[in-house]
Amino acid sequence: MTSAKKIMVSGIQPTNKLTLGNYLGALKNWVRLQNEYECYFFAVDLHAITSRQEPKELADNTLFALATYLAAGINLDHATIFAQSHVRQHAELAWVLNCFSYMGELGRMTQFKDKSSRAGETIPVGLFTYPVLMAADILLYQTDLVPVGADQKQHLELTRDVAIRMNNIYGPLFKVPEPYIPKVGARIMDLQDPESKMSKSVSSELGAVFLSDPPKEIEKKFKRAVTDSGAEVTYAPEKPGIRNLLDIQSAITGRSIDDLVKSYSGKMYGHLKVETATIVSDELRPLQERTQQYLADKGELQRILREGAARAATKAEATLKAVYGAIGFAPY
């Protein structure tokens, strides 16, 4: 990797399983972007424990996520992959940033409001400070660009605010990152609630297609997908369920929405559902096979992760040392 390239950072939570939304909305873009930027892609297992995890499941899911990154086509000659918890600087910088972030800023985060309303009285402090750890994830690598969806824009704004605040106090410690909106991408919605993003933590069992789902399970989920009133396949605002299925097909096949709509002239919703299921199964089958190949050799996978963590830590430590020196910690 060359330092002449701009730096891009992104991660996915390894809770539960990765979804079709993670694959089409993030992983496929990562593969496209890895040749253009110096990329750091990681499984954000520190973020995952803001909700209670079964330990073995978290470890297994983290390895599954990282194996999937490799299986999707992340090239270690062009990108660094690692587990967030393997690079201690993430947690260390997060503490410093906590001391330069304000309660009012964090209290305004929409994701905190949504998740805390479901948590009742037992709201983990980590849920409140989650955006600060995300800021550390980004600022550690002197990041230029961060791929963001609508649900993460607030968090990136906070990251920028904290970076500017500390730069104003101590001089140029951090690059102020910019949002990156992919030229090619897909926002995949829940099959049971097509007004909401497909999510591994919120979706019902039928709402999310997981990357490990076998073909019969994928077919079942698409057959039961919520569609809309009427019978004509059109890409209309009042038909979010149909739009979602067309978006999925377009993201996988590369065909335009107009072309897809024309191909369903005179056909029923059932045709769209079955054919979308087939397209998804055919896309995921080789990914599933390659993922299992990586998981079959845990020793090799762990070696890859150790090397990735070491490369990431070298970059992160340079930033952390500069921050520690600027705020007055004794040198070490």
Plain-language structure description:
The chain is built from 13 helices and five strands. It is mostly helical. The protein folds into two domains: 7-181 and 297-327, Rossmann fold (3-Layer(aba) Sandwich); 215-292, Tyrosyl-Transfer RNA Synthetase, CATH 1.10.240.10. Strand 4, helix 8 (153-170) and strand 5 (178-180) form a beta-alpha-beta unit. It starts with 6 loop residues before the first strand and ends in a 5-residue tail after the last helix. The model has no long low-confidence stretch (mean pLDDT 90).
Search tags:
332 residues; mainly alpha; Rossmann fold; Tyrosyl-Transfer RNA Synthetase; 3-stranded parallel β-sheet; two-stranded parallel ribbon; 13 helices; 5 strands; 55% helix; globular
Write the topology of this structure.
Layout: E1 7-12, H1 20-33, E2 38-43, H2 45-48, H3 55-72, E3 79-83, H4 89-98, H5 103-107, H6 110-119, H7 125-139, E4 145-147, H8 153-170, E5 178-180, H9 215-223, H10 240-253, H11 257-263, H12 269-296, H13 298-327
Parallel strand pairs: 1-2, 2-3, 4-5
Helix pairs in contact: 3-12, 4-7, 4-13, 7-8, 9-12, 10-12
Report how far apart the termini are: 29 Å
Mean pLDDT value: 90
The chain-level structural class is mainly alpha
CATH homologous superfamily of the largest domain, by name? HUPs
Number of DSSP-assigned strands: 5
Sheet with the most strands? 3 strands, parallel
Strand content: 5-15%
Order of helices and strands: EHEHHEHHHHEHEHHHHH
Spans with pLDDT under 50 lasting ≥5 residues?
none
Whole-number tally of structural domains: 2
What portion of residues is helical?
40-55%
Q: What is the CA-atom radius of gyration, in angstroms?
A: 21 Å
Q: What is the helix tally?
A: 13
- CATH topology grouping of the largest domain: Rossmann fold
